[in-house]
Design brief:
Blueprint (H helix, E strand, L loop, with lengths): L5 E6 L4 H15 L3 E9 L7 H18 L3 E8 L8 H15 L3 E5 L5 H13 L11 E5 L20 E4 L4 H9 L14 H15 L4 E9 L2
Parallel strand pairs: 1-2, 1-4, 2-3, 4-5
Antiparallel strand pairs: 5-7, 6-7
Helix pairs in contact: 1-5, 2-5, 3-4, 5-6
């Protein structure tokens, strides 16, 4: 008998979860697994208006419905201002979610060009240490985010090289439709966040591993 898995996807901003893990979320949810998406920050004042934030939350919730997300939470930290929080306070926010949800698999952003992605990655590394609830986590993996992950300076900074590819061939349409929900974020081709670019990356990752469409991840830790 297969036990249901508990999947936690931690996203710095609304749409990162769909860009990086959308097909995998849809795949897990179609198998009856429980998927929790945590959105850390968003388009809030002072850089954005509250209306901007409300729009992205509405878009995110529509995407979550399409992907089959079972739980979600928005921490409501202004984008680019995660670093203004005391470190112990931010780490506690992430740890509390992990201690409450008790995930088997955790997906977090690769530490790329965006400072928010780096800060979230650092906090997740602390929260998922193999102590306490962290002992029960089977896989911790980072995902790539189009328009940020591929802008790191080659060989000067770490570069995303997947060592785990999930076959999302049956879920690529769901991923693309979920991304369409983010009307305020999707770009026209050749924008890196265009639907064409998202599909192209999925096709590339898939063919790297011998199937049609894939999502690439870099495993930080895996135990069995």
């Amino acid at each position: 008998m297969n036990h249901k898995k508990r999947i936690l996807v931690i996203a710095p901003h609304p749409d990162d979860e769909t860009l990086g893990v959308g097909g995998t979320i849809a795949k897990y949810s179609s198998q009856g697994d429980e998927v929790f998406v945590l959105i850390v920050s968003g388009h809030l004042p002072p850089l954005y208006s509250k209306d901007d934030y409300d729009k992205t939350v509405k878009e995110a919730n529509l995407a979550f419905t399409l992907l089959g997300v079972t739980q979600s939470k928005f921490l409501e930290i202004p984008a680019t201002m995660i670093g203004d929080l005391p470190l112990h306070e931010f780490n506690s926010m992430i740890s509390n979610i992990i201690n409450t949800f008790k995930p088997n698999i955790v997906f977090c952003p690769y530490p790329d060009r965006h400072l928010d992605h780096k800060l979230v990655f650092e906090s997740v590394m602390i929260a998922t240490r193999p102590i306490g609830e962290g002992k029960n986590i089977d896989i911790v993996a980072t995902y790539e985010t189009l328009s940020e992950t591929h802008w790191n300076a080659p060989h000067i900074e770490p570069n995303f090289t997947p060592n785990w590819v999930v076959d999302i061939s049956e879920c690529i349409d769901i991923k693309l439709n979920a991304m369409k929900s983010y009307e305020s974020q999707v770009q026209k081709f050749p924008g890196s966040r265009s639907l064409e670019a998202i599909e192209a990356l999925a096709k590339f990752r898939g063919t790297q591993a011998g199937f049609g469409y894939g999502e690439g991840f870099h495993i930080v830790r895996m135990v069995s």
